[in-house]
Design goal:
alpha+beta
Length: 330
Amino acid sequence: MEKKVIAIIAGGDSSEHDVSMRSAAGIDSWLDRSRYTVYTIEIRGLNWEAHLSDGTKAEVNRHDFSFVDGGKKIIPDFAYITIHGTPGENGILQGYFDLLHIPYSSCNLLVAAMTFDKFTLNQYLKGFGVKISESILLRKNQTISEKEVVERLGLPCFIKPNGAGSSFGVTRCKAESDIKEAIDKAREECDDVMIEAELKGTEIANGVYKKLNGEVYVLPITEVVSENEFFDYGAKYNGQVEEITPARLSDDTTSRVKALTKAIYTILGGSGIMRVDYIITKDGEKDIINLLEINATPGMTATSFIPQQARADGLEMKDILTEVIEGKFQ
């Protein structure tokens, strides 16, 4: 059987370019070489380059997504998108690959765009009964007074880019005087800014994917205990966090979180591996599950949540990735 050519699409145009390249290295290490020939394609603006096995790079022809390796024209059979941020997490590449009829790892254009737009996603899922924090959206050039933010959301509050994949540009504001600077900081990453009321509780992350038989399979839950004020960039990528898998939740709460993750994936028509993040708050003795955000192209380094959860479940990343890829050819 001739091997399929898999292109891992990484890099991108956001502050998470280098993080994405680390995710690409993780995926590259797990893909089954008995089934696949693998290339990493790095994107930065209009510069698209395939990394070749001899250490050189080849320009990618965006007309048909081809490149030349050893004098042979290569057109990948499948695109594994692991860009965190634009253009891989917000639907742009999904639309491109749809036009070329090249299957890809993630959800479709609409779902990618919606999960990338935090405010839109939260308001959409709120209509299905999903609990979310109160928030305010500021479009490009739209302003708001510090007093109005405090009156509507209270303090502390979070100010973050509305369309961005990680913790760049996120501020936890404890004082009214911090708000304007935090909005400006968020706008360095994205024109639109979301201001969100803080929920005090336990942060958790829950991975999910679709198996070859069509089953939506929910992985174990990870509890996030940050050494910092919140799960910021330092906590995510510099080890300033304790990640506990499975999370220290009651059996009832664990069951309810997993059921909600499965329901959200199904509502969205999810595809590939997704990660749903929550904050668990308390109402008396009852645990309340609040949606934080959804990551449709989650981090895939060796220490990322998804590989952690796979290991806790006794699963191999190689097998999960094979199911994600082969499922697109059924």
